[in-house]
Amino acid sequence: MKLIFRYVRPYLKRMSLGLTIKFLGTIMDLFLPYILAHIIDEIVPLKDMTLVIRWGLLMLLCSFLAILGNVIANRMAAWVARETTRRLRHDLFRKISYLSNRQIDGFTVPSLISRMTTDTYNIHRMVGMMQRIGIRAPILVIGGVAVTLTLDPVLALVLTCMLPVILFIVFVVSRRSIPLFDHLQKSVDTMVRVVRENASGVRVIKALSRTEGEKQRFEGVNRQVMQDENRANMVMAFSKPAMNLTLNLGLVLVVLVGAHRVNSGLSGPGVITAFLTYFTIILNAMMSITRVLTMWSKALASAERVETVLSAPDELTPQPIPETREDAHIVFDKVNFSYNGRENNLEAIDFSLARGESLGIIGPTGAGKSTLAGLLMRFYDVQQGAVRVAGKDVRAYDLKALRDKFGVVFQNDILFKKSIGENIRIGRQLDMTRLEQAAKDAQAAFFIEETGGMEASLEARGVNLSGGQKQRLLIARALAGRPEILILDDSSSALDYQTDARLRQTIHRDYGDTTTIIIAQRVSSVKNCDKILVLEEGRMSGFGTHDQLMQTCDLYREISRLQMGEGAEA
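Above: the chain sequence. Below: its structure as tokens.
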């Protein structure tokens, strides 16, 4: 609730004006039955048609003011709800963008997508509904009871006896429904994850004839969402018939007591007619409150989920760690790291690189090669040891200042639905000459020209390009900013050997001041690097030049023999 109020607060003046207009419009609605009772009991017996017309025109005026007030207030409510949600989504997106990888792993990407879409939409609906129905319905209930007290206190007492029962129903239902809706949103997270996996892996699913299996998997999570939604809605559904029963019993009592009072001359037919109208108004208002209660329960559950993300601590803020005096550009100083906090994924990693040197990292799948790059760019923080760039611990850097030093291509990196030039520029202030030079260095200039030049459009994720073309565009993106440190994480796997060799030669020749880290599966991609790091199960199996490792590292020698033939040792 605090989250919602925090984002609504800037619009309190506009809301107050809208609610004032809504209040006045609702009061006009409440006047109508009262005027009708006055016409039936006081004006009609006088048999003066002029008075009847005058009072009828007054009813028309009240109706017009009620409609006009509600329309204006509803438009203002819609504006406040829209702006509130826009700001909330903006802040949520910004927060997600700065979460550490550990936090993103904890929340999961499907859950963050669900919070950004479904949960903020629930809040949007609640903010709008509270200004429209959430204000109007209580005014109708309270105002209706107040007016009936002036008409006939005895009949009003019958009506007010029903209200405590209704409030008890509302309390019980809301207390049970909020946890159920929270559980429902978690089921929706799971469904989003399954849909996302299927959409991303549709080619693999079709190629392996797994369509039926994935349909069954989706059916399972879809059924779970349905069951959770039914469970929550069953609780909410109890409120409507319970309120209907309570109010209709009250209506029966009003009719019985009213008939007796009319026969006794204690009340008039106009009063009974007005009472029945007010009872109908109150009944409809209570039904509206039930709908608001349902939306309120959903929105509170959603607000808690959104608040959990927004209140997540900033784990990657600069830390006061003193600099060291050292000549090395990059240093891994006895680094231990664990994703789960129980067993190390990297252990005792200790090496250094001078400025302009190149490092090749090779090893079996899952050895921790990409994790090293993540630690260097501070996607995660080490548990023990330190990672330093230019003598300064990466944890002491401002995050933007640190990452501005890097040009990077990750495994399964992404291209956006923009032009080729914009995909290489990616928001940086780079002129066309720099983009073209980066494309040339990445061996991408020829196919870019064939595709239509820098202005040619790409489909989402670059599906209209081959694997090798995508990798060359991603490498051009990394080179375009002339980075201080270049990381190529398995970025040449789709390139032929000749293109890969030309790319490495160009980087060595034209980016001599750039410290380069090449993560690869091929020995041919790293053998000419100044240093090669061999990883096995998160530990350093070897570190040195190609020739040194061929003499000292069994794992490297075996990989080289398998990839380059029996004569690799020579």
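The radius of gyration is 35 Å.
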